[in-house]
Amino acid sequence: MIMIFGIPIQAFLGQLLIGLINGSFYAMLSLGLAIIFGLLRVINFAHGAQYMMGAFAGMLLLTWLGVNYWFALILAPVVVGITGIIVERFALRRLYNLDHLYGLLFTFGLALVVEGTFRYFYGSSGQPYATPKLLSGGVNLGFMYLPIYRGWVVVASLIVCIGTWLLIEKTRLGAYLRAATENPILVQSFGINVPLLLTLTYGLGSGLAALAGIMAAPIYQVSPLMGSNLIIVVFAIVVVGGMGSIMGAIVTGYALGIIEGLTKVFYPEASNIVIFVIMALVLLVRPAGLFGRDA
Amino acid sequence: MKTSSMTSTATTSTATRIQLLLLGIALLGLIIAPFTFYPIFLMKVLCFALFACAFNLLLGYTGLLSFGHAAFFGGASYFTAYAVKEWGVPPEIGILIGVIGAAFLGLIMGIFAIRRQGIYFAMVTLALAQMFYFFCLQAEFTHGEDGLQGVPRGHLFGFIDLNQPLNMYFFVLGIFVIGIFAIWRIVHSPFGMILKSIRENEDRAISLGYSVSRYKLGAFVMSAALAGLAGGTKTLVFQFATLTDVAWQMSGEVILMTLLGGIGTIFGPIFGAGFVVTLQNYLAASAFPVTVLTGLIFMICVLVFRRGIIGEFNASRLGVRLGLRTKQ
């Protein structure tokens, strides 16, 4: 048997893959958080709940309307994005002039309501979501067995992350967004509808969370609490990366996912807390975060 | 969470007198209460009220929103439970061990957390508390999912039997009064004034030569220790310590109690805790999920009710006339 660092290579690569998959979700979620925070200055505590809503939207679309995975991949983020837009229009908007902590507290309340409601109707236990036919099965890579769906998740999340990065860094709309992040009043005086931009940004951010949710549905089970512990890990990742850069959020997400996976190989007891430990270390060395600008 | 309440010296004395009068009435009520209400329920309210007041010391008077206070509350409840059950120490020593443990935890968490401000501070405390949660989940002494069950109440000072509900109630009431008095003293001390100046304008406090991070750390440790006092006491009341007390939902609950009652008021968190605990008691029997209602109250508070019950009262016409708060 081939060994690497005293560990069978199959176990090593298997955990590396799991880490990469977790990292894909971390990256998509911290990306959404960073976009929302960048423009709205709101820490979206409901991000985990929106991730869960994405998974549920996919499942319910399938069981009620027979919508398959591929359409759900588009529809679920749209549905959740629209709920996000409604929330921003009628509630979040009123909090922009206040201390940023109120945004955190409001979205925390929102997360409690959403998760509590889903738990009331669907219970706490997970429900399976079948892997789409096209992506079921696996391939033998010679050194390990790769389920196709997991490979797809890694590739798709990379495409989503790079696509979002391009949207923000390379397009005209993205330029408006970045300008509004720097100085909203000046941008508005140029005749750009900044309030609309804020609304769409929140919609986009929650849609991204929902997209991660529907992609996660076949891997993890669909349960009302699937997002609540995840969001805290993502917060730690955001602290490590710093909110300053979109790319920073993506890179930190993947890197910490992989580190977490490898910890499972070498020291399983610490795998739950390794991300928090890294966060503490980063706070000591670079309080602003690895990619952060603000102190 | 800036609540600038500038009261002039003339109205302050009236306000103090009224507050003392209300305090006397409230204390009298608490002494009579166990003869009409269920003592366990009252003790639960007192423990959570102290917890919320300890939390408010940090949020209301220093302007730091901690999302990780469950670690101190639940941590102390584990320490007390373990000391009383496994080492057989008397209850007062058990609670003291809980307080020291919580203060130590607060020191460690504080050192990391005060390196960031505002919203990051909230996220860092949340993450560190979650780390402590996972530690409690895996550590031997907490018995993981089972928790520590059957913690004996023991005899206070060796001769007062705490298994008698009334004895236990007055013991809890005593701890509650000591805790609130400590908070009141801290808030009205020169140290507390500096904390308030940090809340109002941190940069100016620095420019005046105060070592702001040392004061913040001090406030964090005191708040943690007092939260530990509440947690340790709660363990003796219910005779168990479980993961519920260290989970992040508990941190959210204490924020809600403080927000609902009134951030930065002495009595607000007590009212908030009473309201939330009563609500939970009523809903415990029904199928309606408590979290939905808690979440709704959160959203309503943030949108339209940011001063909380006591804060709104103080700012109302009656409150202003009583000198509790001048018009702004």
Structural description of this entry:
The complex is a heterodimer of chains A (295) and B (328). Chain A has 295 residues and is mainly alpha-helical. In chain A, the strands form 2 sheets. A two-stranded antiparallel ribbon of chain A has the order 1-2. Chain A has a two-stranded antiparallel sheet with strand order 3-4. Chain A starts with a strand and ends in a 10-residue tail after the last helix. The mean pLDDT of chain A is 86. Helices cover 70% and strands 3% of the residues of chain A. Chain B has 328 residues and is mainly alpha-helical. Chain B has helices at residues 9-32, 39-62, 70-87, 91-113, 118-138, 165-187, 190-200, 202-207, 212-238, 248-261, 268-284, 290-304, 308-315, 317-321; strands at residues 155-156, 160-161. Chain B has a two-stranded antiparallel sheet. The longest helix of chain B is centred in the C-terminal third of the chain and has 27 residues, at 212-238. The radius of gyration of chain B is 19 Å and the shape is globular. The relative contact order of chain B is 0.19. Chain A binds chain B through residues 43, 91, 94-95, 98-102, 104-106, 108-117, 119-120, 229, 232-233, 235-236, 238-239, 269, 272-273, 276-277, 279-280, 283-284, 287, and chain B through 1-2, 65, 112, 115-116, 118-120, 122-124, 126-128, 130-131, 134-135, 137-138, 248, 252, 255, 259, 287-292, 294-299, 301-303, 306.
